[in-house]
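Lecture 7 notes: from sequence to structure.
We start with the chain below.
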Amino acid sequence: MLGKLSRNPDFLENVLFTDESSFFSTSILNRQNVRIWAERNPHAMVQRVHQGRFAINVWAGIVGNNYVGPVYLPNRLNSARYLAFLQRDLLRRLRRLIPRHQRNNIYFMHDGAPPHFGREVQAYLDRFFGTRWIGRRPAPHLWPPRSPDLNPLDSFFGERLRASSIGQVER
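Predicted structure tokens for the same chain:
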């Protein structure tokens, strides 16, 4: 990274930093929503049904001054679903936000999550980004493991997500 920055001080503006977080409910029932208004049988019984637990993955990216996302991914993310996201959603969003000349210079960075490194995902990244993608082995450019301090989404954006009212963040 330091070598690239010494050759090109604007290198970081071409990196599409990405990350995702899981948000989930904790089966909370608001009793204010359970009222019975009736003229008969004032002692009616109400079966209390708690909300079911749900979870959602929220993906986001930052490249230069552009925010890419949010994208809602399936709760149980695997390589096939991640590949579908890359091929459909990410490509469409990048085409809409970023001019072609800049898009052709983007370095795609993602973390070491298992769905990011299926063979099909790696083959797609090789075809679409060539040697301009960053991650764990066998990525052309290695990203240090467990290094959230280097990803602006973890150090800035992730903190905003954790503090938001969406729900509890599970990392």
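Points to note: Confidence is low (pLDDT under 50) at residues 164-171. Helices lie at 2-7, 79-97, 100-103, 119-129, 152-163.
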